[in-house]
């Protein structure tokens, strides 16, 4: 055996640098302020990673970041928001292989994982195309009895809390997050599939999306969702990933400031989404202007 081969044989095995999946708040990736984390196992029960276990304080920090980002994001032109969302789709496509492997760890076959990633990219591009069109669909010029021009136009609601569905971790996340932000809202997402959710947050962080527009928290929904639903600076909440019992509790907590509440239990995320999730998160402003006088 040559000296070179002998040295290689005696070299210690390299230890992998395991990834810790942190939170995504205000464009940064902090650990939970509580210091808590939890183990994520694959479909065979084997260790995959450690993920941050968000706390009530992390929920508050995420809402503060989303509120701070709202003015700038909602003030951008719809065309520019569409450009940014399309850039996110480009980044998502570029990390296709990583998402496929993470979905396979949840128990999906390679074919099913590839199908879900492709569907998620296509869904995100579809929503990006609506950025500068939804106002024409949801707005109107209204006929009135009198010499007035009466125009209704949609505006974003504000900060939206989102409980991401877990049955289809990537497609479900895209299907509830994209319609919230494409119209100018900002979002706080609670996801219990941390690997896919935080990898998607890395896509957002390396795109042109401003800091704070999307914030991602990982941990048990049953613990975090009521605090998000009851937060007085959250304007709407999408309960797509909540059980019937949790949805009822969140809806009760949301009544404190008359939040808009979307239910999503039993939704087929592979079906044509339509525009309902976008229009449900819009406010309508109507303007009267005298004419002919």
Mean pLDDT, all residues: 92
| SSE-based structural type | alpha/beta
Helix content: 40-55%
pLDDT < 50 runs, ≥5 residues: none
Topology (elements, then pairings):
Blueprint: H1 3-10, E1 20-21, E2 37-41, E3 47-52, H2 56-75, H3 78-94, H4 96-105, H5 110-129, H6 134-138, E4 140-142, E5 148-156, E6 159-163, H7 169-181, E7 186-191, H8 194-205, E8 214-218, H9 221-230, E9 236-239, H10 244-254, E10 260-263, H11 276-279, E11 282-290
Parallel strand pairs: 1-3, 6-7, 6-9, 7-8, 9-10
Antiparallel strand pairs: 2-3, 4-5, 5-11
Task: Explain what this protein looks like in three dimensions.
It is a single chain. With 293 residues, the chain is of the alpha/beta class. Helices cover 44% and strands 20% of the residues. The chain is built from eleven helices and eleven strands. Strands 8-7-6-9-10 form a five-stranded parallel β-sheet, with helices on both faces. A three-stranded mixed β-sheet has the order 1-3-2. The longest helix has 20 residues, at 56-75. 43% of the residues are buried.
């Amino acid at each position: 055996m040559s000296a070179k081969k002998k040295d290689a044989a005696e070299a210690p095995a390299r230890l992998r640098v395991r990834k810790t999946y942190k939170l995504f708040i205000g464009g940064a990736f902090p650990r939970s302020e509580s210091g808590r984390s939890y183990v994520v196992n694959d479909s065979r029960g084997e260790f995959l990673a450690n993920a941050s276990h968000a706390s009530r304080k992390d929920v508050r920090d995420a809402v503060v970041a989303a509120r701070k980002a709202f003015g700038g994001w909602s003030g951008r032109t719809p065309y520019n928001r569409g450009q940014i969302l399309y850039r996110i789709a480009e980044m998502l496509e570029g990390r296709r292989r990583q998402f496929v492997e993470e979905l396979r760890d949840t128990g999906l076959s390679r074919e099913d994982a590839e199908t879900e990633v492709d569907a998620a990219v296509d869904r995100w591009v579809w929503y990006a195309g609506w950025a500068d069109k939804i106002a024409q669909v949801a707005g109107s010029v209204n006929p009135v009895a009198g010499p007035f021009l009466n125009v209704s136009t949609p505006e974003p609601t504000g900060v939206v809390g989102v409980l991401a569905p877990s049955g289809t971790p990537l497609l479900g996340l895209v299907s509830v997050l994209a319609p919230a932000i494409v119209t100018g809202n900002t979002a706080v997402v609670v996801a219990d599939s941390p690997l896919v959710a935080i990898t998607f947050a890395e896509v957002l962080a390396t795109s042109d999306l401003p800091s704070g527009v999307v914030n991602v928290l990982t941990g048990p929904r049953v613990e975090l969702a009521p605090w998000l639903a009851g937060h007085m600076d959250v304007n709407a909440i999408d309960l797509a990933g909540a059980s019937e019992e949790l949805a009822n509790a969140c809806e009760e907590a949301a009544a404190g400031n008359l939040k808009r509440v979307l239910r999503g239990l039993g939704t087929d995320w592979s079906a044509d989404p339509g525009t309902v999730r976008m229009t449900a998160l819009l406010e309508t402003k109507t303007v009267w202007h005298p004419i002919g006088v």
